[in-house]
Amino acid sequence: MRKLAVISSGTKGIGRATVEKFYMAGFDIVTCARSQADLEALKLELEKPDLGTVHISATDMSKKSDVERFAEIVKSLNQPVDVLLNNTGIFIPGAVHEEAEGSLEQMIETNLYSAYYLTRALIGGMKSAQNGHIFTTGSIAGIQSYANGGSYSISKFALHGFTKALREEMKPHGVRVTSLLAGATYTASWEGVELPEDRFMKASDIADAIFNTNALSKQTVVEEILLRPQLGDI
């Protein structure tokens, strides 16, 4: 049986690069995004008959009911989950005292609850198998606050705390847990910014870091992957 990687928000940026990396390495993929058209384009471009399967589902990961439906699709495959990447996130800049009403709720629901509910839905099978690796796409903003970070930073600090707690809980169950703390990566989130592309990290570099971390023996876990652009934060 082929290994299975579940990657939320897999049509763009870090998610897309990670989908490609694991699929080309022999994994079946289950991924989601809000846009059905983007998902179908990903499947058409990537899936090859002599390789594995790319399962897709149009999903709004900020909604608990959608997350649970996505998890049921994963479980219906009857394949053990080898890798789970909680990759869904949204960034809305703003200061705590000035940002729009509802910013905190929107980013907590998207950045934190998506990972919380999807992990809870899938972790039972990983515990039973005494196997699996859970990654969360955090941020430098989850360990170091900055001006105009506001509720985004709050949500990422909470996500980092969630990952730390999960790591402690999963130690006796053979499930590895890793927090991905990445600085500015060239993705759609930075569209329109007047900075050269080479000022950012590459999404493929982040995907490589995830893949190589998972490739280590079960006796070893990288608890945190901290990556920054060579010239520093943006």
Automatic annotation (TrEMBL):
Pfam families: adh_short. CDD domains: SDR_c (cd05233). Transmembrane segments: none annotated. GO terms for molecular function: oxidoreductase activity. Keywords: Oxidoreductase. PANTHER family: ALCOHOL DEHYDROGENASE (PTHR42901:SF1). Belongs to the short-chain dehydrogenases/reductases (SDR) family. This is Short-chain dehydrogenase. It comes from Roseivirga misakiensis.
